[in-house]
Amino acid sequence: MTSCKVCSLGAQHPGVTLDDDGLCNLCKLTMATELVENFRYTSERYREFVTAGPATSGEFDCLFMYSGGKDSTFMLDRFVNGMGKRVLAYTFDIPFESRHSVRNVREMRDKIDAEFLLDSDDDGITKVMAEIFSRSPEKPGKYLDEKLPCHSCRSFFLIRAILVAFERKIPYIALCADPQQILTMESDVRKVVQGFYRTFGPKLTDEVFKGRVEEILFAPEEDLPRIVFPYIGSRYDYDPDQMVAEMKDKGLYNASPLETHCRLFGLLNLYSYTHWGSMYYKINAASHLRASHRNPEMQRTSFSLKFPKALNVIELEDRLRTVLFAISAGEGDPAAHERELIELFSMLGASEDAAANVARTCLDLRETAAEFGLALPRR
């Protein structure tokens, strides 16, 4: 057996082991204790935030990480208009962000009564991502190493947000990850900084943050902001489809989750195929297969992407691999590649416009790689 007979995770996938019966350690729930403890801690922290009165240390109750995607737009509306929180909506202007997310951020300034802060550092974030994409990850790797590029990008702008909250004495940072993403995130600000040092070393860390983060490591605990995950409290009834429908009725959201994905989608998949032999989001696809196996009647089997019930994950993964490596090598007909990509993303339930949008980011793979000074693999 080279892949799990239930969820299709391969034996080469980071953190995955297969037993003699062809079952992986995730399907056997060997990580359940760790996940339950993570949910317990983050649930307690969020309840603390919800019940806290107005902050006495500054003008804001929380710094709200606002990306313009479905999760953060929905919760920003709830924080301001439902809970009456005094919010500093913080957006890091990622140079490779989707134009749909950028448009959503701009439109919300006129629709939600919060103070908005736009932060940017194109050179810093590009250096961090170029470093991650150009290095070969350690093998066999740890669970969630598949997500290392996204984790590194998120950690960079989260640390910048931590610095803002620390300097302005804002007690909480709200991070609107969906319930599945929460499992991949650190909830302690000091550990976020420590993790960045471990991944990138002191030289690059001090360079991109200009020596400012060391103060976080040695500040008194009571002076540090605390990270909360709003969706931890609604994890059992989290329904992205209903959320999007509600926001569209209010005029707060006019895209789909795939449309608001950053334009590194093709590069992320190529990274995952090259190092782990699987598509990006394979963990999410495996979650879909695992949930369907346990309960065929379940309406939604993955939080991040809605995989259709009849989706053949292995077929989609193989077809996406073929077209992406052809694009990487500069081979084949671009028009044929575009048709194939649109069909594949439509298989994931994307609308015609959304599928075309993500296909375009994949077709621009070589140009995107050039921005980071990367040499792409041919096969």
Your description of this structure?
The chain is mainly alpha-helical and 379 residues long. The chain contains 14 helices and five strands. The chain has helices spanning 32-51, 70-82, 99-108, 122-134, 148-167, 189-209, 214-218, 240-250, 265-276, 282-294, 313-329, 334-347, 352-363, 365-371, and strands at residues 62-65, 87-92, 115-119, 172-174, 226-228. Strands 3-2-1-4-5 form a five-stranded parallel β-sheet, sandwiched between helices. The longest helix has 21 residues, at 189-209.
Summarize the structure.
The protein is mainly alpha-helical and about 375 residues long.
Number of strands: 5
User: In order across it, which strands form the biggest sheet?
Assistant: 3-2-1-4-5
Count of separate DSSP helical elements: 14
What fraction, in percent, of the residue positions are helical? 40-55%
Strand composition percent: 5-15%
Could you outline the blueprint of secondary structure elements for this entry?
Blueprint: H1 32-51, E1 62-65, H2 70-82, E2 87-92, H3 99-108, E3 115-119, H4 122-134, H5 148-167, E4 172-174, H6 189-209, H7 214-218, E5 226-228, H8 240-250, H9 265-276, H10 282-294, H11 313-329, H12 334-347, H13 352-363, H14 365-371
Which structural traits does this protein have?
single chain; 379 residues; mainly alpha; five-stranded parallel sheet; 5 strands; 6% strand
